[in-house]
Structures are given as structure tokens and as C-alpha cells.
Amino acid sequence: MDVPGGDALDDRGSSAWQGRVEAMVEPAALLGEAGEVVVAAGAFVAIAGGSDGVTLSGALPRAMLRTVAPGDQGWLDAAIARVVTGGADTAAVRCCRPVGRTPLIVVIRRIEARERTARAAAIVTLIDPARRPAPAPSLWREAFALTPSEAALAALLTSGHSLESAAAARDCRATTLRVHLRRMFAKTGVSRQSDLIALLARMGPA
After folding, report:
1. Which CATH number fits the domain that encloses residue 167?
2. How far apart are CA 193 and CA 206, in angstroms?
3. Do 154 and 200 meet the contact criterion of CB atoms below 8 Å apart?
4. CA torsion angle for 42, 48, 50, 55 (degrees, to 10)?
5. At which of 127, 155, 179 does a domain end?
């Protein structure tokens, strides 16, 4: 996929990166040179919105990734800085989660030079060692011709969000998401939100 460059992301560039992070198997987001989260997959926002090891401070496209456990923040900041400044191609940090849950693994990878800009410096992914692989939103997009925004909403709904909490996580109006939801109903042939979630869940691994 060719992703437009430049120091700032226009609507086309933002949409292209949104599609790319949504297509990744693990929850992912795009980081700028300052470590800010520029765009994020719905599954990434769902984890951060639930303060499950990490959270987002501020709104996209200038949100900052924060750890829930204060002692992990310095390690995460250092790892991001190493990658976005070119000191390392990849870095990983373990982030503590609620008692009894396996730590979340945060992996940061530097974007190739030909695609890297001030607003597209690295990709961060969240790996839950205890989680069974979920179907990539790209499968939903391929099967039902969902747009990146529709796939992002689908990821939030299947992870337990209501339409209202999904709107808060995406920093948009619930009325906008209702439009996306109606379009998904038409594309998938269902008429209720619960049926849509059940259909998408059936595409997961056995």
C-alpha cells in the first residue's frame, strides 16, 4: 500500500494509515516523531479505553500513550524515543495490568525510511499473551466491503463497547457511528447490533 508522505497527514494520508493499522492482526497505532498517537485501530482504542495496561491521554491525532502502572511509564517513553529517533528499529516493553492478568507487551517498530515522516515515525502494537487471536478487521472488510471506519467500529463493538462508549473512544458523535452501523447492517444482511456482533465473532478461530 502506498501511503502519502509529507510532514502532516491530510485526509487521504490519514485514511491510508488507518486502513493499514486496522488490517494488522494485533491492535496497532501510528506514532509521530514526538511519540504522539496519530491514528489507531479500533481494537487498540478499545484496550486503551479500558485502561488495560495502557491508556490514551488526549485526543487523536495528538494523544499520548500512557501506562496504567506509573512505574512502567519511563520504560515505555524510553522505548518509543529509541525507535522514533532512529536509535533502534524495534523495542518492546512489558506493561502491568490488573491483578491476575498477564502483562501486556507493547512493541514499537520504526517505519521504513521511504514512508517515514514527522507524523508517521513508528507503529506500536499491543500483544496480550493470554489472548486467542481474533480475526483481523481486514477479513471483515474483505468479506463485507466495510470501510476502515466501519471496521474500527466493528472492532470496538465486538470487544464489548456500547455505541456510546465507542463514540467516546473514537472521539466522535454517537450519531455518526449510528450511520456507520446502519451501513454495516445493509452490508452484512443483519438488522440488529447483537446479530452483527455474533456474525463477526463467528469469523474468529475455532
Report:
1. 1.10.10.10
2. 22
3. yes
4. -160
5. 127
Residue with cell 499520548: 64
The answer to whether residue 99 is domain-embedded is: yes
pLDDT of 102-139, one tens digit each?
A: 899 999 999 998 888 888 999 999 998 877 656 667 78
Q: Can you spell out the DSSP letters for 27-41?
A: -EEEE-TTSEEEEE-
Q: Which residues contact 49 (CB under 8 A, 6 or more apart)?
A: 55, 56, 161, 165, 168, 169
**Using alpha carbons only, what angle is made at residue 74 by residues 73 and 78, rounded to the nearest 5 degrees?**
115
Residues shown for the chain: 206
Residues facing residue 65 across a β-bridge:
56
pTM summary value: 0.64
| Alpha carbon separation from 79 to 20, 21, 58, 125, 133 (Å, rounded) | 22, 20, 20, 13, 25
Cα–Cα distance measured from residue 19 to residue 155, given in angstroms and rounded to the nearest whole number: 13
Structure confidence by residue, pLDDT tens digits, 40-70:
998 899 899 888 899 999 999 999 999 999 9
